[in-house]
């Protein structure tokens, strides 16, 4: 286990050390993050890392294959352009989480801010608490699961993908359509949430794109 | 991009200056062009008079003498007097007796080419080029105690970099109203022309100054700050998160898309607001047991120095976004 103290080394040096740790196959923990920005960014390869505290903006962005756990909150734009891997936030996440996400899983055990999963093209976002407005704004593919309540304009102008909400929905966005929540959906979500030790509400509401405003050729966006 | 912050002590006086210095230093990465703080302290009375605090800009020592003579002369004409004048850096802080109209005094000072930074019985604004710690070396504002205050780190977008376009903006002519703003107003000129027709004068070409005058105008009509903020979400167009401070309250407004951030912690002794958590952590290193909140878009809130908190969230149907 490599321990990096953010009070003693710069964020650039931390990210460099993380890339070295991928090569060495070592696990990493980061102490005293104090909501610093750009922690754990641009790491390509398998790595297990833990941030012991809150991270700031752009945490865990542009990553491929990293298993990242944050023991506090994360700021805006967490998991920006995440390609694959697993990103677990024990606290809350700020706005604009996982924009342009391509794959992997982002789990926020607390609440999440607005515009999460904007133009996401794949992967899964799970929120243990509530989420802000415009969840899945213009999302193209992938899955967003909100166990708590969702704010205004859920799935605003969504093109593809699926949004599940366990609690109350403030309002639906333009071109988001509610469809039946099936037994298959329930089995899928039971398994998914059990993986992260999250409670599953008895039923979810399921939203997909109405395909009225934006749509892409099915061939291109069916599956990964 | 700019950074904003605020601190308010509940039913107490605290180290507002020192708090703001650390808070704004914590978000200096959001803009290092200029920075500033507005600190509200309790009213100072001598006899039955409230002492008026005036901060004006002076370019050098020679100019300071001239400015002092102008202010002294103006005050004498209306039966006022200067109690004390001190110059640090390019700001002269004056304590004075003055019973007349504050807008008139400001407009008179303006005619004499004296640039007023703040006027009020409780408000002191210090703003200049550089980061909050560089400012403190010159103005030593961190020693000022108070009940509440707001601060700003600027990355100029809407007007050039200069000391008078640094934030906080004081509502020109009104005592004790200050704002800090992160964002852009797209209907600035339209609203400015409206306020100019109503007789208000603007000191700069910076869009944020409008917010200060907007708030001060409606405060004058006895509207509550919270109601003014709610109304401002309809009237002000653009992307913005701003903080406003009056003698008794700090309020915030976030536009309907909320592209500009704001987080806060509401603790037993005080409320601390900032653009980013990194800034809160710079002030409060031991944050294990406090919850950091992010207000939703299209919302406003106020905290008063007596500890009351108001919050309003508007719905999107009202703006026909759907």
Automatic annotation (TrEMBL), chain A:
Pfam families documented for this protein: GXGXG
Taxonomic superkingdom: Bacteria
SUPFAM superfamilies: Alpha subunit of glutamate synthase, C-terminal domain
Signal sequence segment: none
InterPro entries membership: Glu_synth_asu_C, Glu_synth_asu_C_sf, Glu_synth_lsu_3
Location of the Glutamate synthase alpha subunit C-terminal domain: 32-168
PANTHER family assigned: TUNGSTEN FORMYLMETHANOFURAN DEHYDROGENASE, SUBUNIT C (FWDC), TUNGSTEN-CONTAINING FORMYLMETHANOFURAN DEHYDROGENASE 2 SUBUNIT C
Annotated protein name in UniProt: Glutamate synthase domain-containing protein 3
UniProtKB/TrEMBL annotation, chain B:
SUPFAM superfamilies recorded: N-terminal nucleophile aminohydrolases (Ntn hydrolases)
Domain Glutamine amidotransferase type-2: residue ranges: 2-322
UniProt keyword Transferase, yes or no: yes
Protein name (Swiss-Prot/TrEMBL): glutamine--fructose-6-phosphate transaminase (isomerizing)
Organism: Desulfofundulus luciae
Catalytic reaction(s) noted: D-fructose 6-phosphate + L-glutamine = D-glucosamine 6-phosphate + L-glutamate
UniProt entry tagged with the keyword Chloroplast: no
Keyword annotations: Glutamine amidotransferase, Transferase
Top-rank taxon: Bacteria
EC number: 2.6.1.16
Annotated InterPro entries: GATase_2_dom, Ntn_hydrolases_N
Enzyme superclass (EC): transferase
């Amino acid at each position: 286990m490599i321990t990096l103290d953010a009070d003693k080394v710069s964020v650039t040096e931390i990210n460099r050390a993380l890339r070295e740790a991928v090569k060495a196959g070592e696990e990493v923990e980061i102490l005293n993050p104090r909501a610093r920005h750009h922690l754990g960014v641009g790491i390509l390869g398998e790595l297990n890392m833990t941030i012991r505290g809150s991270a700031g903006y752009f945490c865990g962005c542009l990553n491929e294959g990293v298993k990242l756990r944050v023991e506090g909150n994360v700021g805006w734009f967490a998991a920006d352009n995440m390609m694959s891997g697993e990103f677990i936030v024990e606290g809350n996440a700020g706005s604009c989480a996982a924009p342009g996400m391509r794959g992997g899983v982002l789990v926020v055990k607390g609440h999440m801010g607005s515009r999460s999963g904007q133009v996401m093209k794949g992967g899964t976002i799970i929120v243990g608490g509530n989420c802000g407005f415009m969840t899945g704004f213009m999302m193209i593919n992938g899955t967003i699961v909100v166990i708590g309540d969702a704010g205004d304009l859920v799935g605003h102008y969504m093109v593809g993908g699926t949004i599940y909400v366990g609690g109350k929905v403030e309002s639906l966005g333009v071109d988001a359509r509610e469809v039946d929540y099936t037994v298959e959906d329930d089995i899928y979500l039971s398994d998914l949430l059990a993986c992260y030790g999250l409670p599953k509400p008895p039923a979810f509401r399921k939203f997909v794109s109405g395909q009225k405003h934006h749509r892409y050729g099915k061939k291109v966006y069916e599956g990964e | 991009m700019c950074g904003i912050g605020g601190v308010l002590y509940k039913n107490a006086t605290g180290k507002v200056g020192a708090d703001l210095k650390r808070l704004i230093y914590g978000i200096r990465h959001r803009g290092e062009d200029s920075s500033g703080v507005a600190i509200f302290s309790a009213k100072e009375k001598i006899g039955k008079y409230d002492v008026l605090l005036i901060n004006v800009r002076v370019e050098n020592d020679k100019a300071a003498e001239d400015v002092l003579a102008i202010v002294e002369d103006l005050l004498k004409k209306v039966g006022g007097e200067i109690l004390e004048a001190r110059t640090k850096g390019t700001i002269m802080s004056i304590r004075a007796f003055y019973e007349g109209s504050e807008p008139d005094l400001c407009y008179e000072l303006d005619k004499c080419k004296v640039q007023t930074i703040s006027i009020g019985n409780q408000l002191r604004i210090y703003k200049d080029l550089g980061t909050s710690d560089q400012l403190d070396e010159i103005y030593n504002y961190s020693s000022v105690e108070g009940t509440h205050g707001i601060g700003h780190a600027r990355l100029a977008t809407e007007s050039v970099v200069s000391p008078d376009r640094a934030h906080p903006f004081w509502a020109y002519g009104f005592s004790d109203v200050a704002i800090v703003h992160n964002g852009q107003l797209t209907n600035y000129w339209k609203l400015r022309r409206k306020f100019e027709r109503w007789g208000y004068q603007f000191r700069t070409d910076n869009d944020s100054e409008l917010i200060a005058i907007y708030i001060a105008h409606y405060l004058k009509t006895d509207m509550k700050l919270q109601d003014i903020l709610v109304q401002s979400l309809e009237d002000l167009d653009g992307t913005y998160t701003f903080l406003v401070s009056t003698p008794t309250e700090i309020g915030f407004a976030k536009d309907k898309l909320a592209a500009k951030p704001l987080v806060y912690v509401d603790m037993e002794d005080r409320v601390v607001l900032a653009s980013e958590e990194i800034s809160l952590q710079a002030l409060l290193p031991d944050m294990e047991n406090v919850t950091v909140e992010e207000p939703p878009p299209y919302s406003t809130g106020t905290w008063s120095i007596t500890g009351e908190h108001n919050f309003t969230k508007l719905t999107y149907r009202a703006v026909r976004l759907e």
